[in-house]
Design goal:
Helix content: 40-55%
Number of strands: 4
Structural class: alpha+beta
Largest sheet: 2 strands, antiparallel
Shape: elongated
Distance between the termini: 26 Å
Strand order of the largest sheet: 1-2
Radius of gyration: 27 Å
Amino acid sequence: MAKKTKIDKEDSVDFMSDLLDGLDLTDKEQEFVLRYLQSYNATQAAMQVYKYDKYKGAVMGNRLRNKPKIKSAIKKLKKVQQRVFDIDPNEYLEFLIKSARADISDYLKFSEEEVPVLDKDGSVMRDPDTGEPITKFVNKMHLVDSEEVDASLIVSVKQGRDGISINLPDKMQAWEKLRQYFGWGEKKEEKDDNSDSIIKAIQGKTDEVWDDDAVEGVDDELEEALKDG
């Protein structure tokens, strides 16, 4: 498949505006689409555009998002966004897989160290008979050098009173999104060929997300818009 041409943000603004004008949407519906694409939160978008309270925003936001013409507009503008930000849908899949397989031991090293015992004044306590320092074994945790780890998966690193904490993506959430992505556990009406490769599964889902009938022809329109510009 040929690589899609990346679109400049300035070109995309005019194209997205023209695209919305060409659809049978009211001004508020157009604004809802744009607000939704900023946050992907239908409730918030409905509250901002229609001044609903939170309860009505949740109900109406979901209803608006699922209206056929609004749903179609969202899919078409997502296609434009894909071209603007030069995003490959498979990057999303790759990130989910990396997140699901992330291992905290790749980022932290655990060890047991012998340290001196201190009294209440902070002085090293000594054995009264031998004069040797009194020691104890404690568990220690050390961060792995940043050059040795995949830092793209680190959500945050904090230095607190109790030491350093590191947060990685939620593994269970990543596995759940993978389950949804591949449809694991779903009953299918038609028989599946169990010998299908993972590549076919990925391609099928990618086409479903980015090449829906609702976005058919958007690539051609994008190219024409760029030529005209």
